[in-house]
Amino acid sequence: MKNIERSKPVLVSGASGYLAGWIIRKLLEEGLHVHATVRDLQDEVRLAHLKALASALPGDIAFFRADLLKEGSFDEAMQECELVFHTASPFIYTVKDAQRDLIDPALQGTRNVFGSVDRSPSVKRVVLTSSVAAIVGDAADLTKLPDNTADENSWNHSSSPDHQPYSYSKTVAEKAAWEINRRQDRWDLVVMNPSLVVGPSLNMHPTSESFNLIRQLGDGKMKAGLPDFRIGMVDVRDAALAHYRAGFTPEAEGRHIVSEGTHSFMDLAIMLREAFGDEFPFPRRILPKPVVWLMAPLAGLKRKMISRNVGYPYLLDNTKSIRALQMTYHPVRQAVIDMFAQITAHEQGDKPQVRSVD
User: Fold this and answer.
1) Which CATH number belongs to the domain containing residue 118 in this structure?
2) Rounded Cα distance, 279 and 343, in Å
3) Is 194:329 a contact under the CB 8 Å cutoff?
4) Choosing from 2, 26, 170, 320, which is the catalytic residue?
5) pLDDT tens, 309-327?
6) Residue 5, domain member (yes or no)
7) Cα dist. 183→86, 180, 189, 307 in Å?
8) Is 96 a catalytic residue?
9) Lower CB density within 10 Å: C or N end of the chain?
10) Does the residue 352 lie in any domain?
């Protein structure tokens, strides 16, 4: 059980990221001093929103250059910090080299950040952004669990560098974090396992894969129909609040599924059609699984992924985060609408009219 001194700086890795921006906003609202690590201190496109937040909110921010693949890169930023939020890790599905683009940054990055933690005597707690991908690899895996539902005791055993490499990267990175944590007793580790994070970005150039999914629901690429995919989802603002509470709740421990609930791709299309009408070509039908399986390679998807995920239920038990972190999750409907409105406003140069739907 760790009490964090609020007068000390708080480190956030991957500060220009989608979720990290909302975590930093919360920290600044609370008047805290943030040490923000980024890859490029000269990239004003990715830093401007953080600087604007710091000028408008009670807290302040200092930027540090850090490279996930460089040992010792986080040492300077971690000085005097008692609390570290390690959010930096790529969230992309389509890669040319999974080892280089996903696994190495996630795994080696975790080892390098935690190496700096071990060398920083001030650190008392690390809050790691993992993922439900480290808990569930394929939806088919849930059929082996009681009530077809995963909780914090579940681990992803089905992903590999060749099958669901993103999920594999999150799994090996979290396991490495727990292994390093067990070697010492000075700092504790609290892990956040969010489902798909949705909602508006504070950075107008987000790279999170969730933006690609929401964009494709309305850009015509899925107009012919949707696969029967189901996925856990959470509002980015709730995910950020869960991280904050994990950092400053002394009793917080272990893993936490951070998820509002499960939604199908068609659920999302219906939410968007209700808000935007026929202004965009939102899908209206679910494609038969055999058709999705047959066409998968044309869409850059592997048939094994289709076989093990389309048509299966996807259930997550978020009881622990509700109890331990006092979370009250907001329905993701408004987050999805806000997200799509932001995407289209940025790409079209104006804001579509969003009707209020009760």
Assistant:
1) 3.40.50.720
2) 14
3) no
4) 170
5) 999 999 999 999 999 999 9
6) no
7) 19, 5, 12, 40
8) no
9) C
10) no
